[in-house]
Amino acid sequence: MADPLVEKLATGEWSPERFRRHLGETGAPLVERVSADEVEVTFVDEPGDDTTVTVSVVIGPRIAFNPIDTEFAPVAGTPFRVLTLRMRSDLRFSYVFTRRGPTGEGERVPDPFNPPPRFSECSVERFSGASVAALPDAVPLPWLDRAEARPTPAVEAAVLASELLGDERRIWVSMPPGEFSEDSALPFVIHLDGTPDHSAPSVRDALVRAGLVRPCAVVLVGQPAPQRDKELLCNPTFSRMLVQELLPWLHHRYPLSRDPRDVALAGESFGGLCAGWTALHHPTTFGNAILQSPSCGYHPDLTWGTGSGELLRRTPIPTLIADFLAAETAPLRIFHDVGELESSNTHSRWLDHVLTGKGYDTLYKEFAGGHDYAWWRGIFADALLWCFPLRSTDRSQA
User: Fold this and answer.
1) Which of 211, 244, 367, 379 is spaced 20 to 30 A from 132 at the CA atom?
2) Is the pLDDT of residue 393 over 90?
3) 25 Cα distance to chain centroid
């Protein structure tokens, strides 16, 4: 069924100007509840003549935007095109429109009536600049809301030269609110796939101001795009760089704790895989690992064939899971989240089963969405609350 506001537009009860003004005031997409747990979501675009429009969402089998093939339909007598999809009412998801002109070339754009939120630029370019929809029953992300409303001032930028890797990368450091002496020993989180506009410092500040987490530094590590896939895939040299080069560099410049229980390594996707694998192999450095939708199905020998090639395929136990199975239980606390609707959740459930069985202090969460920064940006608050709570018993006495 058509959205009631679209019906008003189609019948002439509302003029295009009034409809456009309403979208500008209330935002998009339009949502109409149709049952206790389902809604109809109407996307609206104003693309111009001779242009087709489709929508892609970060839910589906691809670790990217998954296209919905149905084209937007024109609303007769208006410049608007619309598409209505029935959805679970608890979803939160990133999405983009693809506009195609007469030549067939596509242009990916955010929803013009729902601009990308703050912190929407990502280290992985194909996810950047997307609009976000939060449906009426989506789990709220209040600390992300506070972070967006009051972002952290500019982070301190530097360049780290690595002899181990033979390259350089950008590093951004954000200290918590307040004044700290050189004798301070602040907890800190190192976040892989860092960018200068990452949400982590602002989420941290919101929690610190609320008195819920210990003041902690956030270190954002840039991943040079050409090397990212090689560096983050259980690469022992990259892990040694973090331990042998980045950590001394940080301790020389900032009043940070040397207690591994005060150090967290965090990442999303490949970064989550690297964070878990590095912490497992360096538990005397990293006492906490934050894995957000980690690519824990990875194994270097896993290949996919077609046809008769499949008859030669072998499926080894993924590297991260195999290494946790083989190693003695390490003094490591692990926060782990994954989307219920992403293809990697089966491996995340397997990893959580292994961690629980081996007695790790771990917290596992699934969210109603895909492989999506729209969730990761806000659930990072839960990770900080898990790693560095202000009101908690000293873990050394636990």
Assistant:
1) 211
2) no
3) 28
Measure the CA–CA gap between 201 and 191, rounded to whole angstroms: 10
The answer on pLDDT for 179 being more than 50 is: yes
Measure the CA–CA gap between 103 and 281, rounded to whole angstroms. 52
DSSP 90: T
In total, the chain counts a number of residues equal to 398
> Contact 265/192 with Cβ under 8 angstroms?
yes
In Å, how far from its chain's centre is CA 209?
23
d(CA 3, CA 19): 12
Burial (CB count <10 Å: 0-12, 13-18, 19+), residue 28? buried
* Burial bucket for residue 300 (CB in 10 Å: 0-12, 13-18, 19+): exposed
* 106-124 per-position pLDDT tens digit: 899 999 999 999 999 888 8
Q: Which residue has the higher pLDDT, 139 or 49?
A: 139
What is the DSSP secondary structure assignment for residue 378, as one 8-state letter? Answer: H
CA distance 15 to 166: 62
Per-residue pLDDT, averaged over 201-215, amounts to 97
Work out the number of other CB atoms within 10 angstroms of the CB of residue 303: 11
| CA gap 275, 283 in Å, rounded | 11
Strands 167-174, 156-162: parallel, antiparallel or unpaired by DSSP?
antiparallel
Of residues 106 and 332, more confidence is placed in 332
Residue with tokens 């990259």: 238
Total-model pTM: 0.94
